[in-house]
Amino acid sequence: MRLATMATLARPVSAAVSAALAGLWLHALSQPAPEVTSEYRLGVWVTAAMVVLETAAQPLVILAQAMLFVKLKVNDGGGVTQRRGTGSALLVVIYYGTLLLLWHVRSPDNCLPVKSASELGPRLVPGQPALDRDQLALTWSFFKQGLLKQLLTEGERYLMTAFHLLDFSEQGLYDVVANLGSLAARFLFQPVEENAYVYFSRTVERGKPVSAAAGRVLHDLLRAMSLLGLVAVTFGWSYSHLLLRLYGGALLTAGPAVSLLRAQCAYVLLLAVNGVLECYTFAVMRQEQINGYNRKMVLLSVIFVISTGIFTRLFGGVGFILANCVNMLTRIYVCYRFVAGLPLEPAVSVPPLLGLRPPAAVAAALVTAGLLAAGSESWLYPSSAAAHVAVGALCGAAVVAAAVYSEPRLLQAVRERVGDKLKRS
Questions:
Q1: What total of structural domains would you count in the chain?
Q2: Which one of 131, 152, 170 terminates a domain?
Q3: pLDDT tens per residue, range 384-397
Q4: Distance between CA 248 and CA 255 in Å, rounded?
């Protein structure tokens, strides 16, 4: 309940911060031309209001995560992403609607630790402090970490806006390609990372050696996510032009969008690896380690800003993605060093970080598929897009076959997961 009280305090804080940033966006930064958009001012204030509205669901988000309502988290994330304009209102409706339904349909499986929504708000218990000092200190550490991660993850957009490194048309093209290239991160990587964090935070004790079960799960997650990222790099290079041609026609393929999307594919690989490493790192870090990590994040922010300035001048819009890659590589290095330094229980037979190394058969299949796809783009794609797609399908099937042959344990996990879903349906 004290944690829910702290989450409730986020509402007035978010209202004040959103109002201040909206004023900054409207009065201190450059504005688009009126012929480009006539509703820019309204859009800024609507975005600020949506942020405040979204914080209304945060106490229930915490409750849902504590009760392991994983599907609810995945479904609301997908719905908000698909309906960005009304996403915050949809988030509130989903969580409060689910809470009301569980109150209405009582059973031993869905009983909640609260009896009304008022219990999720600020409550003062006689003889007890309103806020737990340890939780408050840990929340402050995570807040600083979240702020730094936001600057590192979305920093190029702030730099674009503040220093006008790209004009608005170039920024629009960059956003289109970046959003298209990050679909895998939004719909696939993010749910996996959130569920992995819930698992690790409940099965791993902070400051204890890595258990056999947690080490095996971390190894398998790193192997699966790295393979997905390698597939994105292998086929993304040769099929970026075709994808943009189908998505936006000649308007997108004529400019630097193809190079942007190819660079974005490499960034997706780094996102896949970094997400799993960070969720495990944050699940096992103690508070003093989190504070130390935050200090390292400040240094990473400086490296990111410097690399952004250098790469943008050299490569234009592609430089932002290259700077993001440098940023992600530094974050992976920090987390890798931390995880590598953790003690392992004697029952751990395979170091978890070996999951980053693809099997030889899969690596050979990926290299061969990449070369064949690149040759197909040069020789077949100009005359027949269908033949180019057929080559990619055959190469993809070969990569899947190699992965199935080399990773029988992952295949067995997928079969068990699918079988459980079929039984429930």
A1: 2
A2: 131
A3: 999 999 999 999 99
A4: 12
